[in-house]
C-alpha cells in the first residue's frame, strides 16, 4: 500500500495517510482563492481514519463554506502553507491541499467545483464534470 504524504513549505508540519484518496477535485471557490493566494485549490479527499499530522506550528481557521456549514482550514502557523481542511458537510473525511503533497503528480483531478467563480483566464478541462457550486449543495 502506498503512502500519501506531504508537508508545509517550512517543513514544520508533516502529514501522511495509508488510505487511498477517494476523489480529487479542483475548487474555484472564492474562499480557496483567498486562502491559497492562487486561482483555485486542488482538494484531495481522504478518510480521517489513518490520517496523521505532526507539527507544533499547526494552526486553523474556521469559516462558513458555500453550504453555510463550517469549514476548518488547517495551515502552518510558521510559514502559512494551507495543508488540509475539515468540512462539516463531509464528516469522517479530510481534504488535503494537493500542492503540499511530496508528489502532487500522483493525484488526478476528477472534477471542478465552484466553476461560477473560476477566473476567466483559467483553462478548465471540459472533459471533466464542472459544477457551478459544490455537487452536494
Ligand atoms: Zn510551515
Ligand atoms: Zn474551495
TrEMBL record:
Give UniProt keywords alphabetically: Lyase, Metal-binding, Zinc
User: Which top-rank group of organisms is this from?
Assistant: Bacteria
**Where does the record place the CENP-V/GFA domain?**
4-122
For this chain, the family text in UniProt reads: Belongs to the Gfa family.
Matching PANTHER family: CENP-V_GFA DOMAIN-CONTAINING PROTEIN-RELATED, GFA DOMAIN-CONTAINING PROTEIN
Full protein name: GFA family protein
Amino acid at each position: 500500500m502506498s503512502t500519501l504524504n506531504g508537508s508545509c513549505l517550512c517543513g514544520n508540519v508533516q502529514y501522511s495517510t495509508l488510505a487511498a484518496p477517494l476523489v480529487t477535485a479542483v475548487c474555484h471557490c472564492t474562499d480557496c482563492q483567498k486562502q491559497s493566494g492562487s486561482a483555485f485549490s486542488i482538494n484531495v479527499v481522504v478518510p480521517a481514519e489513518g490520517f496523521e499530522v505532526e507539527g507544533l506550528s499547526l494552526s486553523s481557521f474556521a469559516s462558513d463554506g458555500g453550504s453555510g456549514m463550517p469549514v476548518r482550514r488547517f495551515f502552518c502557523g510558521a510559514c502559512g502553507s494551507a495543508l488540509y481542511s475539515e468540512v462539516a458537510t463531509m464528516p469522517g473525511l479530510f481534504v488535503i491541499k494537493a500542492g503540499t503533497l511530496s508528489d502532487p503528480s500522483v493525484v488526478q483531478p476528477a472534477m471542478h467545483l465552484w466553476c461560477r467563480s473560476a477566473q476567466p483566464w483559467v483553462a478548465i478541462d471540459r472533459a471533466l464534470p464542472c459544477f457551478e457550486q459544490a455537487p452536494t449543495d
